[in-house]
Predict the structure of 5-formyltetrahydrofolate cyclo-ligase.
Amino acid sequence: MTHHGPANEDVSDPRLGKEELRRGCRDRRAAVDHRTRMGRDDRRTEHAMSRLLWAHKVALYLSRGDEPDTVGLADTLVMMGKQVLAPVLTDGHGHSLHEPAWAWYDGKNVRTGLWQIPEPIAPVLPASAITVAEVVLCSALLVDRAGYRVGVGGGWYDRVLTQRTPGVPVWAVVNDDEIVDEVPHDPWDEPVTAALTPTGLHLLGQ
């Protein structure tokens, strides 16, 4: 597994706070042109599919905007007969749920939820539903070589990852220049096991 360093040394400066890192990463993602982004997404999805052939149940977030695309991956998984578990953040009426929740994604019935995040229109399942997942793909803005990630800021995944079945791998979906040497982390932050990028799956925490 190959590791890739940051494109900008400031990205991995541990003296920067998480909010500064989030702003910088969002700015860099927004500056990427559509064609480049599509190419990265296609390659990332190809690598993901080659690694997920064995899995029957996959938990992953549904991407929005200029995030690394996972909707195409989710659709492909569903077409292959696999089950996809996706986060649900609202009750369907614009109100935020107080606790993390999931629903099965069928590739068709989707609504726009909190912060414009797509979510399945399906019976809502508790956070503990993650126990059925054989692989978990989570969102991240940055991830370091120890597996700690800078997420979008809600702490959603830190609350649910502790409930997954022990030993189930967790992949952060990022771009290659978003793997850095070190990011600030808190005691409750759950490290991931690998980073999924356009160049492949890179093991972390080794």
User: Anything to note?
Assistant: Residues 9-200 form a domain with the Rossmann fold fold (CATH 3.40.50.10420). Residues 1-10 have pLDDT under 50 and may be disordered. The chain has four helices and 13 strands.
